Rieske 2Fe-2S domain-containing protein
Amino acid sequence: MRITGTGHASMFIETAAGSILCDPWVNPAYFASWFPFPDNSQLDWKTLGQADYLYVSHLHRDHFDEENLSEHISKDTTVLLPEYPTAELESELRALGFHKFIKTVSEEIVELPGGVKVMIQALTSPTDGPIGDSSLWVEDADGTRLFNQNDARPTDMSVFLQHGKIHAHLLQFSGAIWFPMVYELPDNAKRAFGKQKRERGFDRSLRYIDDVKGDWVFPIAGPPCFLDDSLYEFNDVFGDEGNIFPDQMSYVEWLEEQGRKQNIILLPGSVAEVSADGSASVVHPVDDIREWFKNKKQHLDEYKERMQPRLEAEKASWSHPEIDVLETLRERIEPLMQSAEHIATGIGGPVRFDLTAADSDQVVESIVFDFLERRIYHDDGAKVRYRFRTERRLIEHLLHIREVDWVNSLFLSCRFTAARIGQYNEYVYAFFKCLSEERLQYAEGWYAEQRPDDEDITVQGWQFQRRCPHLKADLSVFGKVEEGVLTCQMHGWKWNLKSGKCMTSVGHDIRSARAEDA
């Protein structure tokens, strides 16, 4: 099996049944904040776009690149479609002209002509990407198996392992979030939280690697790079141990320190050959890949200069002063708030957006989303649970394009700051990624169906429910107990086992007791 790196989570897989192009992201995403690193814009996308099959794992814009899909990918390719609870991914692809689909059933094998088998596992909780994330398993005709986990976080790996040994395991290792950078915290606190998040990301990836036991590990799906002057500090080139966007070489060096030596980095244009006997080889488009990464800042600065015209053009498109932000929000969002029984209760208070002038900290309008009264109004000075500060023109643009997912646009852009009272509240972000009736009703139904798990496990003298209240991860696998605190290593959530209280977020308490008292 041949794997050509095409940047970030994208790759071109060649098998006996033809080629599969995965997640072909090229163009800046999230208000032109994220760019693929390294630069992959010079690849021959017209040729890559003639792939026999297309796999888009989910709708995050660093995986679903509408411009590249529209301009360069053949509309006659066959789409391997994950089984999601809403039809958004299929609808968006059809709108671009794609018309051939293999509609997979989650965790069921599909055999393609030529003897190649594929399987897609779809994750479907409201917190998985924008209503969904997925992973792709491929078995070539000669028995070589590839597992493209990209940035999905499966809780059950057995479905991928029961069909035989994995020879190539491709997975995320770098951050893909806005925490802690955007929070209004002292620099030392941000650094400490960032260091924890970086370490937790590495540890989680190693747990997946240990579970899969693949012959070769390929770090993919990150990091993005930031070429706008206002965001450039987020690039991991300043020796900050709290930076959550480590690059591929930093991660491989860490893996080597853990004794994991069989790792392959894919630059755009790298070509790897993986065989069922466990052997692999790779040819890179540069002479010395380690030396290339040593010059990372130079590459970033040159990339930044090349992309400045694109950045300026993107920024020029954001302002829509003709839009009355408050009235438009009332018209479109208040009806959704009325329907959001579980989510609004979970938020449990008002959320404020302070809107500033372009490229300024001057607040020109403050708008409150009141999830108790289920209405939107101008700030009246009352205390709020969550507060966001961003440019007014970004909200104008979201309303102009009728964006239904502010997480997959504004929040991932990192073009905002945030403050909160109390713990992280996942319901806030669940609501702002569900700004359509279809999404909201699905999320409401999902939350309504959640029930405490009846099965308990005992770990280090504590008895508690087996399934994590967050995303149902198996705590017998992902749970770690230290000094009466349970940590789910899937996402780093914590519980005080004496009280059962969640220390990470509101409304996710756990059933727990000392084993002798249970």
